[in-house]
Amino acid sequence: MSTQKGKKAEDASCAYLKKNGYKILERNKRLGRGELDIVALDDDVLVFVEVKAHQQRDASLWAMHPDKCERFVSAANVWLGLNQDYASYQCRFDLMIVTPRKVAWFPHHIEHMLDVIRL
Description:
Shape: globular
CATH class: Alpha Beta
Strand order of the largest sheet: 1-2-3-4-5
Low-confidence stretches: none
CATH architecture: 3-Layer(aba) Sandwich
Number of strands: 5
Distance between the termini: 24 Å
Largest sheet: 5 strands, mixed
Helix content: 25-40%
CATH topology: Trna Endonuclease, Chain: A, domain 1
Radius of gyration: 14 Å
Order of helices and strands: HEEEHHEE
Mean pLDDT: 88
C-alpha cells in the first residue's frame, strides 16, 4: 500500500498483531511479482499478512482476486528464499481488513482472517 490511508491501516494491523503476541519481522517488502505488507511470527508459524483498507468490507474481499493471491504467494516464496532461517517453518497466509468507522473519532474496525490461501 502506498497511500497514507494504507500506511495507517498497516500501522493499525501491526499494532493489533503485536497486541495479540505476534512478532513483526518485516513490513512493505517488494519481492518478485508482489509485495508483502507484513511478515510476522505467530509462535512457531511464519505468517504472511496482506492488509486491505477500503470503505466497504466487501471491496477488500474482492481485492483479493486470483492474480493478487498468486503475486502474494510469489513474494512469500522469494522472501523464504532470501531468509533461509525460516525455510523449515510452517507458513500461513492471512488477510487483515481495516474498515473505517462512520464516526471519525471511533477507531477502525480490524478483521483478521487466518489462512485465507491454501497451497
